[in-house]
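Subject: complex prediction, re-run

Hi both,

The earlier run crashed halfway through, so I resubmitted it with identical inputs.
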Amino acid sequence: MTVKTILTEPNKLLRQISQPIDNVGENEQKLMDDMIETMYAANGIGLAAIQIGFPKRIIVMDISKDQTNKNPLYFVNPIILNKAAEQSTYEEGCLSVPNQFAEIDRPNKCEIEYLDYNGEKKLLKAEGLLATCIQHEIDHLEGILFIDYLSKLKKSIIIKKLSKQKKKPDRIVV
Ligand code: ZN
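This time it finished cleanly. Structure:
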């Protein structure tokens, strides 16, 4: 398992639409292993393949926040079958939008169909944090980031900040 570099906004790759997987084989499982390792190393609770540069419809998640009792989840080709009309609000962040947070409303429940780590078809009824996290990650597969739900002004302020951070030279102490 390898910890990969996570792409950050602004980056055109993050805006790409990810492609479905035909078959879950060794290569896909290796990618999922790298993704989960990368996500844990960055202290995230979800990661889409495109965030490490692979435009594939694969998501990994672990919302247990429990170092000793990890609960990794793998979703290949996830499709939202239905969403609740009722919304919930979480303050969201994203490993590809470092140090920026905003309150986002999303349907509070959703049902998804996907293939698991072994390529088996599964159904999941998600609610609460799990539902929000899945919707955030599926957005990544469509090239959508949570900041896209903000006003134009708020979004442009965040993108400016991120661009500035990127241009800063590395700080070294010698
Ligand atoms: Zn994200």
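The chain has three helices and seven strands.

- K.
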